[in-house]
Amino acid sequence: MVVDSKDPDLLKLELVNVPGGAFAFELAAKFCYGSNFEITTGNVAHLRCVAEYLEMTEDYQEENLIFRTETYLNEIVLKNLDKSLEVLCKCDGLDPVVEEVGLVDRCVDAIAVNASKEQLVSGLAHLECDVGSAKLRMHCQDWWVEDLSALRIDHYRRVIAAMRRNGVRPESIGTSITHYAQTSLKGVERRHVWDSGPFVGDSQRMIVETLIDLLATENITTVTLSFLFGMLRMAIEVDASLDCRIEVEKRIGLQLEMASLDDLLIPSTQTSDSMFDVDTVHRILVNFLQRIDEDSSGELSPCGYDSDGLKSPSHSSVLKVGRLMDGYLAEVAPDPYLKLQKFMALIELLPDYARIVDDGLYRAIDIYLKAHPSLTESECKKLCKLIDCQKLSQDASSHAAQNDRLPIQMVVRVLYFEQLRLKSSFSGGGSGCVSGLGLGADGSLSQRFVCSSSGVPSSCVSPQRDNYASLRRENRELKLEISRMRVRLTELEREQGLMKQQGRMRGGDGGGRHGGEQGRAFLASLSRGFGRITMFGVGGGPAAADRRRKKSGGRSSQCSDGKARRRHKASFAYD
Q1: Residue 312 has what pLDDT?
Q2: Coiled coil where (predicted)?
Q3: Which of 55, 175, 396, 426 would be a feasible disulfide site paired with 392, CB 3.0-4.6 Å?
């Protein structure tokens, strides 16, 4: 530099961009003047780079600094996994010279090769660890996981890619990625909805995006579902790219049936929006249903319920997700900022066969109606149409029949299908046709004639309901109907007693004979019409209707009181 300088009065030289700075230059100066110092894993990277910068090659002196550092790297560092990791960590701040001399690439390859070798030669140790404690197994198999977490994210990515090429176990790599994320992202705090503006720097965003990209490019499928949800929340916090979020959502959708309700309750970071990130859950559910369609295309019938499909893993997964989503809907329903369109979109996304009973869905909708009293009547009708009244249990039907928040059309549908179930119970399984009240599209009642081969009204039979659940429900309804018939019979006996009392009050044998004849006629009428008794008084023909109208004056108040008492006893857990 002095020779090349054209200034005859040169008194000062300025060395620009010296790799390693004053620390590295001082070591090089000591080497030139013969001062003793030791080459170690902590300074070999600085010495190699500054020697390259100062052109300390064999052309000027034998065994110059470049030769000395290369010898140490090849004989000491690159043959050992620990030392290669330490040197690679010391390469920070030495760019671009450290890349030009190939030190990073050599350390990365040495780490991957040594890890692969140790994995092969330690098979016996791994087998011994499998029968030991979990802590010992972790120490045996993944002892280098914590050391990898000290690497810079770009160096870490290159190490993981090299490990995959050299055949390192995917389980070990997955554990390493999980530990790296927990170590490098533990300082990121949750951002609240009311916070605005940038929250974290580009470094943390780069870490999140790099780790997610590693899962995709290296095809790592051994990470846990809780880790995926954690990465998804972190991607939302640091405002990662949309591609990264979609990748995590897709992986979660592949195993959504194993998720918990707490996993889905992702806080929203958008201002003036709902408290929970409903859009993200919607996309995850879409990915899950796409996986089900691909896995079970040949297992389920077009309606989604086949005898073989009931036993398939896909159908079991759909039922689990159906229960999970009902719980999620109930959790987000009280949010006053949750829009009706988003709430309905989540409900409509699941197929009908995902719910054997609609009690959970009814509960969620009831909570939403209670938390959003400003909904219009048409919006309430549209929301309540998503409930299949035929899938409501007896408790849910009783609650819905007394729910003031439901549209009247919904209440009518509930009562109508309750009537059909009662008539189905009376039919006893014989074939035939049933004439009764029908339900129009607007919820109004009309006369309808329904036939089925089993004697059960066809509108009451869901093609997607398994036989076992139907038998249990019918058994429960039969028990309830017996109790109702007992109550009704008690009322009839009370009415008969009143008729006898009125006959005695008239006095005389003629009155007694007249009362006795009325009692015998009543008992005969009761024996003939016992099979036609229903909860809503449907059936019996025109003559029975005339008799009921004639007698309604004397016992309408008593029947009303009895029905009011029975309705008062009905309770449900949703109030």
Answers
A1: 57
A2: 468-495
A3: 396
Q: How far is CA 350 from CA 266, 420, 524, in A?
A: 20, 27, 54
Tell me: cis bond preceding 96? Omega within 30 of 0 counts.
yes
Q: Tell me the pLDDT tens digit for each residue of 52-61.
A: 999 998 988 8
User: Amino acid identity, residue 97?
Assistant: V
> Buried b vs exposed e over 55-89: b needs ≥16 C-beta within 10 Å?
ebeeeeeeebbbebbeebbeeebbeebebbbbbbb
Q: Which two tokens stand for residue 449?
A: 């004639």
**Token couple for 224:** 């846990």
Contacts of 414-420 spanning 24+ positions with Cβ under 8 A: 414/389, 415/536, 416/389, 416/445, 417/389, 417/390, 417/392, 417/460, 418/535, 419/534, 419/535, 419/536, 419/538, 420/450, 420/457, 420/459, 420/460
Q: In this structure, which amino acid lies at residue 242?
A: L
Helix ranges (H only) for 254-312 are 261-264, 278-295
Specify which residues 438 forms β-bridges with: 446
State the pLDDT at residue 324: 95
- Whether 531 and 430 have beta carbons less than 8 Å apart is answered as no
Q: How far from the centroid of its chain's Cα atoms is residue 217's Cα?
A: 25
In which residue are the tokens 């503006």 written? 197
Question: For 264, what's the count of Cα atoms within 13 Å in the CB-facing half-sphere?
Answer: 27
Percent of the chain clearing pLDDT 90 (strictly above) = 43
Taking the C-alpha atoms of residue 339 and residue 512, their distance in angstroms, rounded to an integer, is 71
Q: Is the pLDDT of residue 572 over 70?
A: no
pLDDT for 456 equals: 37
Contact 276, 335 (CB under 8 A): yes
Q: Please tell me whether the overall predicted TM-score, pTM, comes out greater than 0.85 for this model.
A: no
Residue 475 pLDDT = 66
What is the residue whose two structure tokens read 């790099």?
A: 210
Q: Kind and range of the H or E element at 450? A: strand 445-452
Going by C-alpha positions, the residue among 85, 104, 84 that lies closest to residue 94 is: 104
Tell me the one-letter amino acid at 181: A
The residue type found at 276 is F
For residue range 202-236, what is the model confidence (pLDDT) as tens digits?
Answer: 788 999 999 999 999 888 888 999 999 999 999 99
How far out from the chain centre does Cα 371 lie? 23
How far, in Å, CA of 523 to CA of 239, rounded?
79
Contacts of 173 by beta carbon, 8 Å cutoff, 6+ apart: 160, 163, 164, 218, 220, 222
Decide if 530 contacts 365 (C-beta within 8 A).
no
pLDDT per position as a tens digit, 426-481: 665 444 343 344 444 444 434 343 333 333 333 344 444 455 566 667 667 766 77
Q: Which pLDDT value is given to residue 472?
A: 63
- List, in sequence order, every residue forming a beta bridge with 447; answer none if it has no partner: 437
Measured CA distances, 219 to 262, 267, 502, 517, 532 (Å): 27, 29, 88, 89, 67
User: What is the Cα–Cα distance from 149 to 160, expressed in whole angstroms?
Assistant: 11
Q: Are 157 and 214 in contact (CB under 8 A)?
A: yes
DSSP 424-449: HHHHTT--EEEEEEEE-TTS-EEEEE
